[in-house]
Write a structure and sequence with these properties.
Number of domains: 2
Shape: elongated
CATH topology of the largest domain: Alpha-Beta Plaits
CATH architecture of the largest domain: 2-Layer Sandwich
Distance between the termini: 49 Å
Number of strands: 7
Strand content: 15-25%
Order of helices and strands: HEHHHEEHEHEEHEH
CATH class of the largest domain: Alpha Beta
Length: 184
């Protein structure tokens, strides 16, 4: 399995996911054309290292090769590579905090069966990491818009039938929550 602790390897996968064209050819003329058309992000990746990483990705089925009519070999992200990207998106996820609070509480509630314990534990840890306040074992509160992030997490861990999201304007112990989140 590919060791993905290298930020450069993550960057290469993320650039592939973003649709940045990456092609390899043995023709110097074609190489020059490709390099001229590369996105700025690719220019800072050592070429030898890039080739080695792409071969490693191919060996681990994160990417596939596809020959195009002009003789260039295109590197495309495989389904396994796309799943890896989702994992990185999850690891890097942060909720953007607005300048002003809209006075709504976001409530995430779940009742996840024991057979999905790993997903339940991962969900709980991720929303704690994002800054949610744990009201009860399976009820978490956050003061800012976060529905997209919660939907992404729920889909990633395949927990859609077990998780509920709500917005509330009035909660008991609201003063305690405002203090916790530093709200006025």
């Amino acid at each position: 399995m590919v060791n993905m602790s290298s930020p450069t390897k993550k960057k290469i996968l993320l650039l592939l996911e973003a649709g940045v064209a990456l092609g390899f050819t043995y023709s110097p003329k074609q190489q020059i054309r490709i390099i001229k058309n590369l996105a700025n992000s690719w220019r800072f990746v050592d070429k030898k290292y890039l080739y080695r990483v792409v071969r490693e990705f191919k060996h681990n089925r994160l990417v596939d090769y596809k020959e195009v009519p002009d003789g260039t070999i295109q590197i495309i992200l495989s389904e396994l590579g796309k799943k890896r990207i989702l994992k990185y998106n999850l690891e890097e996820m942060k909720i953007k905090l607005p300048d002003k609070w809209d006075k709504k509480w976001r409530v995430v509630m779940f009742d996840i069966p024991e057979k999905k314990r790993k997903g339940r534990d991962a969900l709980r840890e991720k929303i704690k990491e994002l800054g949610f306040y744990e009201m009860q074992k399976s009820v978490f509160i956050f003061p800012f818009e976060c529905r997209d992030e919660i939907d992404f997490i729920v889909e990633f861990f395949q927990l859609r039938p077990y998780v509920r999201y709500a917005e509330a304007t009035n909660l008991t112990n609201e003063a305690q929550l405002k203090i916790h989140f530093g709200l006025k």
